Amino acid sequence: MTAQPQDFAPGHAPEPEKNLRAIRAALSLPEDREAFDAGLTAVLDEVRVSLDLGVLNDFVHRWWISACDSVRDPEGRRRMHAAARRVLAEGPSTPPGRPWREILAERQGR
Predict the structure, then answer these.
(1) Which of 16, 73, 77, 88 has the fewest CB neighbours in a 10 Å radius?
(2) pLDDT category, 93, cuts 50, 70, 90?
(3) How many CA atoms, within 13 angstroms, populate the side-chain half-sphere of residue 47?
(4) CB-side exposure of 6: number of CA atoms within 13 Å?
(5) Helix H segments across the chain?
(6) 26: burial class by Cβ within 10 Å (0-12, 13-18, 19+)?
(7) pLDDT-based confidence at 105, cuts 50/70/90?
(8) Whether 70 contacts 8, CB under 8 Å
(9) pTM score, two decimals?
(10) Is 97 left (phi over 0), alpha (psi -120 to 50) or beta?
Protein backbone atom coordinates (compact mmCIF):
# COMPACT_ATOMS: atom_id res chain seq x y z
CA MET A 1 0.00 0.00 0.00
CA THR A 2 1.35 3.41 -0.91
CA ALA A 3 0.26 6.85 0.14
CA GLN A 4 -1.39 8.91 -2.54
CA PRO A 5 -2.10 12.67 -2.66
CA GLN A 6 -5.69 12.13 -1.54
CA ASP A 7 -4.40 10.33 1.58
CA PHE A 8 -3.21 13.66 2.98
CA ALA A 9 -5.55 16.12 4.62
CA PRO A 10 -6.03 19.26 2.55
CA GLY A 11 -3.70 22.02 3.63
CA HIS A 12 -3.03 25.62 2.75
CA ALA A 13 0.03 25.00 0.61
CA PRO A 14 -0.15 23.04 -2.62
CA GLU A 15 1.65 19.72 -2.82
CA PRO A 16 5.03 19.78 -4.49
CA GLU A 17 5.33 18.21 -7.91
CA LYS A 18 6.60 14.66 -7.85
CA ASN A 19 10.08 15.29 -9.25
CA LEU A 20 13.48 15.53 -7.60
CA ARG A 21 13.90 19.32 -7.98
CA ALA A 22 10.45 20.16 -6.59
CA ILE A 23 10.78 17.66 -3.76
CA ARG A 24 14.14 19.03 -2.64
CA ALA A 25 12.87 22.62 -2.85
CA ALA A 26 9.89 21.72 -0.63
CA LEU A 27 12.07 20.27 2.14
CA SER A 28 12.13 23.05 4.72
CA LEU A 29 14.69 21.66 7.18
CA PRO A 30 18.43 21.29 6.63
CA GLU A 31 18.29 17.77 8.14
CA ASP A 32 15.79 16.70 5.48
CA ARG A 33 17.77 18.27 2.63
CA GLU A 34 21.00 16.64 3.83
CA ALA A 35 19.32 13.23 4.11
CA PHE A 36 17.71 13.70 0.68
CA ASP A 37 21.07 14.57 -0.92
CA ALA A 38 22.86 11.64 0.71
CA GLY A 39 20.04 9.26 -0.20
CA LEU A 40 19.95 10.49 -3.78
CA THR A 41 23.68 9.90 -4.18
CA ALA A 42 23.30 6.37 -2.82
CA VAL A 43 20.27 5.54 -4.95
CA LEU A 44 21.89 6.87 -8.13
CA ASP A 45 24.94 4.73 -7.41
CA GLU A 46 22.63 1.74 -7.00
CA VAL A 47 20.85 2.54 -10.27
CA ARG A 48 24.20 2.74 -12.09
CA VAL A 49 25.09 -0.74 -10.89
CA SER A 50 21.71 -2.46 -11.10
CA LEU A 51 20.24 -0.52 -14.04
CA ASP A 52 16.93 -0.71 -12.14
CA LEU A 53 15.00 2.56 -12.08
CA GLY A 54 12.51 1.08 -9.63
CA VAL A 55 14.74 2.04 -6.71
CA LEU A 56 14.80 5.63 -7.96
CA ASN A 57 11.01 5.65 -8.32
CA ASP A 58 10.69 4.35 -4.74
CA PHE A 59 13.10 7.03 -3.53
CA VAL A 60 11.13 9.78 -5.28
CA HIS A 61 7.85 8.52 -3.85
CA ARG A 62 9.14 8.26 -0.27
CA TRP A 63 10.70 11.72 -0.38
CA TRP A 64 7.63 13.22 -2.04
CA ILE A 65 5.62 12.11 1.00
CA SER A 66 8.18 13.81 3.28
CA ALA A 67 8.08 16.93 1.10
CA CYS A 68 4.26 17.03 1.36
CA ASP A 69 4.61 16.72 5.14
CA SER A 70 7.23 19.47 5.18
CA VAL A 71 4.96 21.82 3.24
CA ARG A 72 1.91 21.08 5.39
CA ASP A 73 3.52 20.91 8.83
CA PRO A 74 7.06 22.32 9.00
CA GLU A 75 6.79 22.67 12.79
CA GLY A 76 5.83 19.01 13.07
CA ARG A 77 8.94 18.09 11.06
CA ARG A 78 11.07 20.19 13.45
CA ARG A 79 9.55 18.40 16.44
CA MET A 80 10.13 15.01 14.80
CA HIS A 81 13.82 15.78 14.21
CA ALA A 82 14.20 17.14 17.76
CA ALA A 83 12.67 13.95 19.17
CA ALA A 84 14.97 11.82 17.00
CA ARG A 85 18.01 13.77 18.23
CA ARG A 86 16.90 13.22 21.85
CA VAL A 87 16.49 9.48 21.32
CA LEU A 88 19.90 9.26 19.65
CA ALA A 89 21.54 11.26 22.45
CA GLU A 90 19.79 9.54 25.36
CA GLY A 91 19.36 6.09 23.91
CA PRO A 92 16.14 4.12 23.78
CA SER A 93 13.70 4.57 26.66
CA THR A 94 13.23 0.82 27.01
CA PRO A 95 15.93 -1.77 27.59
CA PRO A 96 17.07 -3.43 24.37
CA GLY A 97 15.68 -6.88 23.74
CA ARG A 98 12.60 -6.38 25.90
CA PRO A 99 9.50 -7.67 24.11
CA TRP A 100 7.06 -4.95 23.10
CA ARG A 101 4.14 -7.08 24.26
CA GLU A 102 5.57 -7.05 27.78
CA ILE A 103 5.91 -3.27 27.70
CA LEU A 104 2.34 -2.84 26.44
CA ALA A 105 1.02 -5.21 29.10
CA GLU A 106 2.70 -3.12 31.82
CA ARG A 107 1.22 0.08 30.42
CA GLN A 108 -2.24 -1.48 30.37
CA GLY A 109 -1.86 -2.56 34.00
CA ARG A 110 -1.88 -6.29 33.39
Answers:
(1) 88
(2) low
(3) 13
(4) 0
(5) 20-26, 30-50, 54-72, 74-90, 100-107
(6) buried
(7) confident
(8) no
(9) 0.70
(10) left
